[in-house]
Amino acid sequence: MSKRLSERGAATRSVHAGELRQQEANAITTPVYQTSTFWFKNSQEVIDYQEGKTDREEYGRYGNPTWRAVERKLSELEGGEETVLFASGMCAATTTFFSMLPQNSHLIVTADCYRRTRQFIKEYLGRTGVKTTVIEPGDLDGFERAIRDDTVLFFTESPTNPYLRVTDVPAFVRVAHERDVKVIIDSTFATPVNHRALDEGADLVIHSATKYLGGHNDLLAGTITGARDQVEPIRKTLGVLGGIIDSHAAWLLLRGLKTLAIRMERHNSNGLALAEFLETHPKIRRVWYPGLESHPDYEVAIRSLHGFGGVVTFEIDTDLAGAIRFVDATRIPYQAPSLGGVESLIELPVTMSFWDYPPEERRSYGITDSLVRLACGIETADDLIADMDQALEEV
Ligand SMILES: Cc1ncc(COP(=O)(O)O)c(C=O)c1O
User: Fold this and answer.
1) pLDDT digits (tens, 9 = 90+) for 2-46
2) pTM over 0.85
3) Atom of ligand 1 nearest to the CA of 188
4) Is 61 a catalytic residue?
5) In testing the pocket of ligand 1, which one of 155, 208, 224, 354 has its CB within 8 Å of the most ligand atoms?
6) Ligand 1 lined by 333 (C-beta under 6 Å)
7) Cβ(94)–Cβ(88) under 8 Å?
8) CATH number of this structure's domain 5-257, picked from the four choices 2.40.320.10, 3.50.50.60, 3.40.640.10, 3.20.20.150
9) Helix, strand, coil percent values for the chain (each to nearest 5)
């Protein structure tokens, strides 16, 4: 008997999941449905739709068949019932927080979550009376102490940026669920190929699909996946807030996802090769990569991740001027924010994301002047290593 798709390998699911076998004109690929609205033949069709008797599209802000294919593919890859697509990762996070957090409720987040997520929580969410407690990544005791009667959500990235801290999801879920708190994992750095957070008990998984899911540095998108009863209210909120993805971007994401598993194999092997090379280099003070024994979460990482990703963070034994000489001397990676695309990207967090921070605040996030984040693409590992080696001569 042939296997169900959900039992097949990640590469087979990346290619085939969510796709309708029978397309218009026997095409293999899903079309870009470039339409803002969908027509009804008569009033009876309208009424049947309003009464939930037919499953079809109505208006472009509520759905589009191109998005649906992406949503089905991601649900299959994450092992969740439902997925919703958004215009960006930030839109996925903000819509989800608005949808799930009642007025005056309580949220717990980790200290190192994405800068704009922190900004949204601080500057916007507070307006609805939501209170937030920030805990250090991996601090399970601190998490338990932070839970209050009005706590609704725990939100963390895993792995985090830039130190790639890996959350022990089953441990946090156990504590959270005892107190009726929902757990959302931002799995952007892991992807469903490297980590299946829903299988480990998380309630929802969120992604900046701009990164590995899209995979080609050519689109912005966000996603959330989980059980239907959790996801549907978020979909309804999206229909009101309106941060929907353009159908062409959805199509690019669908195309990118077909190679997700095979791309991740190369991102993972490049990340490990670069981390191992850098760890032995005399001009490198320290490397953070969850696949290295020296990483604080190595034990959690080998237990729950299937690969450690393409991002390697390291500190050069130099000052800001030396770090700038290094990064400017690299020839293969582009100096740019973001990660997860086929082209390698490199940045100094101090100049790219934290330049406008007062130095003490920057240091409180662990951002030093010679910290580098390398997001390995899918180029040949030896070429990336040789490039890092020649650039380090400039330090
Ligand atoms: C972990 C993480 N989550 C969310 C976001 C936001 O995603 P987007 O840029 O697609 O809005 C980012 C962006 O850098 C990110 O790194």
Assistant:
1) 788 888 999 999 999 999 999 999 999 999 999 999 999 999 999
2) yes
3) 1
4) yes
5) 208
6) no
7) no
8) 3.40.640.10
9) 40, 15, 45
